[in-house]
Amino acid sequence: MLRFVPGFGSDTPAPARPARVVVVGGGFGGFNALQQLEKLLGPDRAKLTLVAPTDYLLYSPLLPEVATGVLDPRDIAVSIRQTLPRTSLALGHVVDVDFDAHRLTLTGAEGDSTLEWDKLILAPGSVTKQFDIPGVDEHAHGLKTLSEAVYIRNHVLAQLDAADALPDTPAGRAERAERLTVVAVGAGYTGTEFVAQMQNWVRGIATRWGSIDPKDVRWLLVDLAPKVLPELGDRLGREALDVLADRGVEVRLEISVAAATATSVTLTDGEVVPSRTLVWGAGVAPSPLIATLGLPTEKGRLVVGADMTVPGVPGVWAIGDAAAVPDLAADPSKPTAPTAQHAQRQGVAVARNVAASLGVGQARPYKHKDLGLVADLGGFDGVAKPLGIPLTGPVAKFVARGYHLYALPTISARVRVATDWLYSAVLPTRVVNLAQVRSEDALINKAQAIDLYE
Hints:
Shape: globular
Number of helices: 12
Strand order of the largest sheet: 5-2-1-9-22
Largest sheet: 5 strands, parallel
Distance between the termini: 47 Å
Number of strands: 28
Oligomer: single chain
Strand content: 15-25%
Low-confidence stretches: 1-9
């Protein structure tokens, strides 16, 4: 395998001016692309810029553990400025791309600005998938950003605290039912891990309340799909379902939400569930930026070639959840799954191809076989399928945590996460309501900046 030293590894002389390489999106794809570009291209060949709404990479698979207070939010926020020293950071959201002029417009706290590029990598990622259901926009919260995870944690605590203080009257009992019911939509990774870990967390801090038994809290997980965690297969899906059932979690499959209010959730089978907590994790959709580009899409994802180039637009590549990269390892007629694993590896691969366009190395198509998926169900429970091998229980839990430590991009992040896991195993759980995020700021449209494109 060839190794390229920055500024070397090619007979092509350095250009008179470093190429302006702009990456849109600081998620797994964009972050890994820039990390690799810093290795492949010296400052004489490329000036690297990242456009992102935050100055950190969010390791989102561990958001449920932020929601339960096991991990500090900073543990899974990897500083971009410290990790990518040669990359300039432009904070904001891209709201317009002019491919002819090689110019993009971004909006941020300081207003609008423009940025020009010679090479452009689009990696804006995804947002929580939404549907036109009455009341969901106003009352459902996602679990895709730090603000959403912190808000959900404080909100659940506040609901249980309020329920604990209610009088034993008909009105008090009715309000108590609303506050003690948590409805989660989506039996994929987000919804299943959230319900499993949050239920386990509440069970572990029951001494906080005088009149609430953990069994009083109603946990309801609903999904239109016929299975839990379908990505892991029937066997592991049934195992996860059994774990949830043993803990008293109600799982309603082939059912979804028909409407929501501040105090209730109406299901598609007609049942009205009294609840003041609705968590929405029904899959992901490509960043709304993609729909504004005027380019061909496949189920909302930008159409790209196997080398991740955007057809008909020279000097532009797209990767991650927002791009329909052909899955050469499984079925080239279908795109790779929108997972962090693919985004990470596409980031590395696209960096090599961009470097090749600047005279360093050789471009190659993206081909990677998924190494397997893991799900942490809280306590000693988990399900995992590394390299196609089904695992359950403590072994799966160990594999899941091992994978996350491996996937975290810095040693300091790994140490902090591992240390917090150790503390959570031997010390009492931290239970405080910091009330750091307002409800309106944690709604999906606001927290994930979807409203910028409406």
